[in-house]
């Protein structure tokens, strides 16, 4: 599809993510502030941590009119849930993602010289902030969240959390070079025990 054939998606006016720019106008320098609480859609989640679907995201944004479009800045704040990357214990945290993106006017140079998915767009005097917020939130999530900075994780032998084990917790380890000999010793002992009692008496 050529650049001229590409069209940005039309925003759903009823969506809480969509903000009208009509009151802002196109004169550079105009500003308006907005505060909204938006339920998180699916997908605001990395592998082990994120914002559960339906949980509130607090948006505080400022719209500024510029010659090329509308610049949106502000923050998105939400509570996170997940599990520790080391010990798998449930954890809770918060994220405050900083926002900053230009939404281009349909007749601007920015609109004409960029691909549809490279920049936000003003469509019928509306902007959809969901993708901008999603990108900022996901970039702000920790890749390996921890229940505490010094978490030691799980014991590799029994799988229990080190934090729940005694300080001297340990497991007997057998050198692999002797493991087969110990197995032979066990089988020999079992064979002797199962032998005929009379035969054992003669041997004594």
From TrEMBL:
Q: Name one Pfam family in it.
A: YceD
Where does the chain cross the membrane? none
Composition bias type Basic and acidic residues, residue spans: 1-10
What ranges does the record give for the region Disordered, renumbered to this chain? 1-28
Q: Which InterPro entries is this protein grouped with?
A: YceD
Instruction: Identify this protein by name.
Output: YceD family protein
């Amino acid at each position: 599809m050529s650049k001229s054939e590409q069209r940005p998606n039309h925003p759903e006016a009823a969506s809480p993510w969509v903000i009208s720019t009509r009151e802002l106008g196109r004169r550079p320098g105009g500003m308006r502030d907005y505060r909204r609480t938006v339920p998180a859609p699916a997908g605001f989640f990395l592998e082990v941590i994120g914002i559960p679907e339906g949980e509130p995201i607090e948006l505080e944004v400022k719209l500024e009119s510029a010659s090329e479009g509308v610049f949106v800045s502000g923050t998105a704040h939400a509570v996170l849930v997940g599990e520790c990357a080391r010990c798998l214990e449930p954890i809770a945290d918060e994220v405050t993602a900083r926002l900053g993106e230009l939404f281009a006017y349909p007749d601007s140079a920015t609109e004409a010289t960029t691909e549809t998915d490279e920049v936000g767009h003003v469509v019928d005097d509306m902007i959809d902030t969901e993708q901008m917020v999603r990108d900022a939130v996901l970039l702000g999530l920790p890749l390996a969240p921890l229940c505490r900075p010094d978490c030691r994780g799980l014991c590799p032998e029994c799988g229990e959390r080190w934090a729940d084990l005694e300080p001297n917790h340990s497991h007997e380890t057998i050198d692999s070079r002797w493991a087969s000999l110990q197995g032979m010793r066990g089988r020999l002992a079992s064979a002797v025990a199962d032998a005929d009692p009379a035969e054992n008496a003669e041997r004594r």
